[in-house]
Amino acid sequence: MAAEILTEDLLRTSLQRLSREVVKSYPQFGELLAQNMLRTCGLLPDPERAAHYRELGTLLIDLGRLYHAEADELSTIDVTPET
Questions:
Q1: Distance (Å, whole) CA 66 – CA 14
Q2: Cα–Cα distance between 25 and 67 in angstroms, integer?
Q3: 56 in Cβ contact with 40 (< 8 Å)
Q4: What is the rounded CA–CA span in Å between residue 50 and residue 44?
Q5: What distance in Å separates the CA atoms of residue 39 and residue 76, rounded to the nearest whole number?
Q6: Which of 26, 30, 33, 78 has the most CB atoms around its CB within 10 Å?
Q7: What per-residue confidence (pLDDT) applies to 46?
């Protein structure tokens, strides 16, 4: 039980940090992350919490795809030094 609480606390802390960072580049996702994070906390029945974790996981995957697309775009920009 203690390990489960510790894991949830670490997850919550990580998600809070992630939410702050995401807002900088994708403000519309910051609020969604915060809402979904709150729905995974508390004394909800396991099936309900599982559904919220699934929603949060889907959102994180979508965010990952956005960041990967941005990285791909940035890495293909041709930067030639001006002479």
A1: 19
A2: 9
A3: yes
A4: 9
A5: 39
A6: 33
A7: 82
Separation of alpha carbons 83 and 81, rounded Å = 6
Query: In the chain, what is the straight-line distance between the N-terminal and C-terminal CA atoms, in Å?
Result: 64
Render pLDDT for 13-68 as a digit per residue (tens, 0 to 9).
887 787 788 888 888 877 777 777 777 776 778 888 888 888 888 888 988 898 89
| CB distance 15 to 37 below 8 Å | yes
Which token pair is 83?
A: 């002479």
CB–CB of 33/64 below 8 Å? no
Q: What is the DSSP letter of 42?
A: S
CA distance 24 to 55: 22
Q: Which residues make Cβ contacts (< 8 Å) with residue 58, sequence separation at least 6?
A: none
User: What does the block give as tokens for 73?
Assistant: 């775009």
In 1-83, which residue ranges form alpha helices assigned H by DSSP? 2-25, 27-39, 46-75
